[in-house]
């Protein structure tokens, strides 16, 4: 059994789109012209964005920021993710998803890979996004503090 977390990304024009917004892909396998399986190493963080629509418009918009787990570790089930992952952020509804995507863009504008952001940041973002407040921005100083803390934990 592989220790990798597998995510099925799927695209059916004007119906379904499952995509990875950020994360370091360890392996990729093309299933067919609409589906790929992306794999992530244990401990890596990635954003999984999905939406589904029908003839009347968008039915589901969701963003999950997950940490890949090792085989046998406790995890939460997430559609299209095997075996699952540690949920750092889970939001649905286009307005909330769009705000999170803008926050990811802001982190990238600082020159920081969102996959390297402190996991606690993703844990606490949902409170401000859900009540439509301006979420606390991730700064270079906060990032440097996180990197220092991560080095000290090793």
From TrEMBL:
GO molecular function, one term: hydrolase activity, acting on glycosyl bonds
Protein species of origin: Bradyrhizobium neotropicale
The protein's name in its UniProt record: Glycosidase
Superkingdom per UniProt: Bacteria
Alphabetical list of InterPro entries matching this protein: DUF2840 (IPR021263)
Keywords for the protein's UniProt record, in alphabetical order: Glycosidase, Hydrolase
């Amino acid at each position: 059994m592989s220790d990798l977390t597998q995510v099925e990304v799927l695209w059916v024009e004007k119906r379904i789109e499952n995509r990875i917004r950020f994360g370091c892909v360890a392996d990729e396998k093309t299933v067919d012209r609409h589906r790929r399986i992306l794999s992530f190493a244990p401990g890596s963080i990635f954003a999984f964005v999905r939406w589904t629509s029908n003839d009347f418009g968008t039915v589901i918009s969701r963003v999950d920021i997950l940490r890949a787990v090792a085989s046998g570790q406790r995890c939460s089930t997430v559609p299209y993710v095997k075996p699952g992952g540690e949920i750092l952020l889970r939001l649905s509804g286009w307005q909330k998803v769009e705000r999170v995507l803008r926050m990811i863009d802001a982190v990238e504008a600082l020159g920081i890979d969102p996959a390297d952001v402190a996991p606690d940041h993703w844990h606490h973002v949902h409170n401000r996004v859900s009540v439509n407040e301006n979420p606390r921005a991730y700064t270079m100083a906060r990032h440097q503090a996180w990197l220092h803390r991560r080095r000290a934990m090793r």
